[in-house]
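so the lab meeting is tmrw and i was supposed to have these ready like two days ago... anyway. pasting both below. for each one the top line is the aa sequence and the line under it is the structure tokens. i havent really looked at them closely yet so no promises
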Amino acid sequence: MTRDSLTAVTAEIESCVACPRLVAWREQAAREKPARYARDEYWARPVAGFGDPKARLLIVGLAPAAHGGNRTGRVFTGDRSGDWLFRALHKAGYANQPTSVSRGDGLRLRGAYVAAVVRCAPPANKPTTTERDTCIGYLEREMRLLRDLRVVVALGSFGWDGVVRVARAGGHAPARKPRFGHLAEAAIGPWTLLGSYHPSQQNTFTGTLTEPMFDAVFARARALSPE
């Protein structure tokens, strides 16, 4: 049997057509571009994880944005949620630059890896339960292959639930499901799971999530997993 690898997982993710609704939506978004992206050639495929194979920190989001990762081909890249995420990772010393605008922009992560529960942009940012369950095996493999992993930051309750599902599948999660919250913390087998409100515009524009609140998550992640 061929040994699994992050390279193999990435290749499988990027060629996946398992969910017809998501395939149709990601391609529709690429055709019906907003004016500001009219000249862009969209990726319009599933979006794999990105970062350091020796990561001690994993960040897990919901899914690529229709005009973010679905456009650029890199998770949390080219949208405002990504602006918040990579700015925070840069402050915490995990990224060499505070911006993530395209696959060729020179961004590098050190000690961190970024992924999502679902790898295609879903309509209204709401995957179905079937789509989640079809896709979550990719996250399970990535977590297994990140052999130095110590801390997982879940962005939002969907990411939190996804990580708990992966942990339970591997026999790691506690008997009672840990409750999501901002800066919530739970031990799940070999990892510490940290919760964060998602840096969506719904949260950042309303003040539900502020930069100091977000920075505190990655300061805690660093404290839990020093180099």
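ok protien two:
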Amino acid sequence: MKKLFLCLALAGVILICLPASLWALTAQEIMDEAAKQGLGENFRAVLSIQTEKGHKSVSKQSLWLMGQMENKVVTFFLDFVEPEESKGLRFLLIVPIGKESKSFMYMPATQRTLPLAGDDPTVDLGGTGLTMEDVQVFVPRGGEKMELSGEEKIGERECYVVKVTLPEGQGERTMWVTKKGFLVVKSEMKDSKGKLKRSLKVTEFFKTAKGNEFPRKEEISIPERGVRIILNQEHAVFGITIPDELMDPKTFGTFKWQN
């Protein structure tokens, strides 16, 4: 009995003395948890977008945004409501985790669906200033290298700082993920020369019925253009069933989901 007690005590001492790094989460694990948190439930929300240059408002848009994750494939559906000239414009972004994404645009004027050329993640979505990277910011793609570069406090939240190096010299993305809840509260995108291209910061969260936090307000800055994009997500509902037709490139443009 005494020997057993001594063995247990020795094991406890060894565990206590192990380097802290052995207990730390890896960058990949942190980003996996962020993806689960951000896409744990199917959702639908009204997204209001105001684009400013200097102190002048240059455009305002309103659209429906839906998202779901099934079988390691993340899909986002965008349906424009305002202004009138953009009404009916739709986008579908299909992102298999760890693989190349696909994106499609439906043009109501011609009633045609077109794949976005080269699936460029920087393509502007309907003149909003938003890009595919803004929408799918925490979804892992293929060929990225992740490393935990430190910890930092954003507001009152303690955060992990994760650096994501993009493949083929496309630059790097730095993301601030909260230790509690694994929320992406800030991200910065730099080119291959280290120049800041755009940054995103969540300025307000709200809690879902299940107690999870979800962004309500976000700001995106594009320094070289002097542009600031202000996002407000309203009337959000979670745990919904999204019609299969809205997730299919063949039918997402014409399916009347609000009837």
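from a quick look at the 2nd one: The chain is about 10% helix and 45% strand. The chain has one domain: 26-247. will dig more after coffe
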